[in-house]
Amino acid sequence: MSGGSTAGRRGATKAAIAAMPDGCAQIIARGTDGAMCHCIRRADGTWTGCERLAGYNGAPAFSGPDLAITGLPDGSSQVPAIGLDGMVYHRVRRPDGTWTGFRPPRGMNTPALGARAVDVAGMPDGSAQVVAVGRDGRAWHDTRRPDGSWTGFARIPGPNGRDAFSAGQVHITAPRDGTAHVAAISAG
Q1: CB-based contacts of 8: which residues, under 8 Å, 6+ apart?
Q2: What angle do CA 118, 121, 123 make, to 5 degrees?
Q3: Which residue in 74, 130, 137, 138 sits closest to 103, CA to CA?
């Protein structure tokens, strides 16, 4: 995950990348040791070192099966990830390079959402759209508003608009027009 020679490179078992407004790319990855790390490929082609991300509630590192990252117009990035406990967590890297801690967004009538897969898209208005495949095998959606508040996870309707959508994988993207497009692979 670093440029130049192979010295200092780390292996990864999962990675996600986000383009940023300043021309750099931010990468998060789950290393072969299971810990999540973050690095930046600057616009001039140079790399930062990999920074291990602290875990939830004071844990020295964040580990889990799935992760995602998106860049926002203000230069911040947002990282949702699934922890070893199977819950969705979220943190923000501010434009000045400082981080918030991982925190779980609320689930639907629960303190957090248990999930198997997660993705995120940064919107032109500064919000972030998060999608997840819940432990129930259904696709879920939540929005983190620019002020940091959340709408709360809600089920994504299925093809007929009524039933919940069963999914094995789910992804989201945000075109410049402010819409969000979700693609899911049906689980049933």
Answers
A1: 2, 49
A2: 150
A3: 130
CA 81 remoteness from chain centre: 5
Distance CA 113, CA 15 (A): 22
Please write the tens of the pLDDT for every residue from 89-132.
Answer: 999 999 999 999 999 999 888 889 999 999 999 999 999 999 99
**Tokens found for residue 114:** 């248990």
What pTM did the predictor assign? 0.91
- Which of these, 112, 126, 134, 114, lies nearest to 184 by C-alpha position? 134
Under 8 Å CB-to-CB from 109, ≥6 apart: which residues? none
Enter the tokens of residue 104.
């779980």
Q: In what order do the strands lie in the sheet with 36-41?
A: 12-19, 25-31, 36-41, 51-52
C-alpha 119 chain-centroid distance: 5
